[in-house]
Design a protein that fits this description.
alpha/beta, Rossmann fold, Nucleotidyltransferase, domain 5, 2 domains, three-stranded antiparallel β-sheet, 9 helices, 17% strand
Length: 270
């Protein structure tokens, strides 16, 4: 295969202590969308009973286990080994990027350092992953979207089986991306919106909101008009919000007039 036709080569480095083996199939399917998983390594103390579930997975997906015994409580030898290997692989010059699979914020500096050297970094972790690590990556994919139950697809609208957030939660960031593109008539290409979203938030993913494709998510929010020019690219713009009706004014109460008799009684007592 000619070099120019080769997919970008990625090193997949998995923190076994902070990753469920249930995401493995979804993980490598996701990596295959943007590159080749050339190196597949996982780090942890596999003598521990809680990591036994990785045993069959490692052989099926050709993942090389790097055993790190926990000699001292509270010291994470696996994290250190992963960082050392990442830097060795970086300086080998053989890889275009790295996939760091962990929900641990300790890898924030590693992600930043790899990107400083020009490598792409894709992070994979749970929604609880600290923002510092998510933003240090070029892209960050929530592992909840890679679970088998999240891969099921509805037959009609392409919605995923389980949404982490409702589609309405995506409206503010979609509006922000559209506002940054600034067109005269308000219409913007959906592809341009997608690229802008990646720059705004590394962890943006339509699957988080229950849809596999950005176009399905945009329609699912009900907050945007869509148009397709002569069967070509799709463009969108925010729907105008109807003006809120003014609240009715409270009727002011006028003091009741005193009766004539009351006035006379009041004057007679003076």
């Amino acid at each position: 295969m000619a070099a120019e036709n080769r997919l970008p080569r990625f090193a997949i480095l998995i923190d076994a202590d902070n990753t469920s083996p249930r995401i493995t199939q979804g993980l490598f399917e996701e990596v295959a969308r943007f590159g080749e998983a050339s190196v597949r390594r996982i780090y942890g103390d596999f003598s521990s009973p809680r990591l036994k579930s990785w045993a069959d997975i490692l052989q099926k997906y050709a993942i090389a286990p790097y055993q790190q015994f926990a000699y001292t409580s509270g010291k994470n030898a696996s994290d250190i080994a992963l960082v050392i290997d990442a830097m060795d692989l970086l300086h080998s010059g053989r890889f275009d990027g790295f996939c760091l699979v962990s929900s641990d914020s300790d890898f924030t500096r590693l992600a930043s350092r790899l990107r400083e050297q020009g490598a792409d970094v894709y992070g994979f972790g749970e929604q609880k992953t600290p923002e510092s690590f998510r933003q240090a990556c070029r892209r960050f994919i929530y592992t909840e979207n890679l679970l088998p139950e999240a891969q099921a697809t509805a037959p009609d609208d392409g919605a995923t089986a389980k949404a982490l957030q409702p589609p309405s939660a995506a409206v503010p960031i979609l509006n922000k991306a559209i506002a940054q593109l600034e067109t005269e008539d308000g219409w913007v290409g959906l592809g341009a919106v997608g690229q802008r979203l990646i720059n705004i938030a590394s962890d943006f993913d339509p699957r988080t909101y229950g849809h596999r494709k950005l176009s399905d998510l945009v329609r699912g929010t009900g907050a945007f008009d869509t148009d397709q020019l002569e069967g070509r690219f799709t463009r969108i713009k925010p729907r105008p919000t109807p003006p809120s009706e003014p609240r009715p004014k409270a009727r002011s109460r006028t003091p009741r007039r005193r009766s004539q008799s009351a006035k006379q009684n009041g004057s007679s007592t003076g």
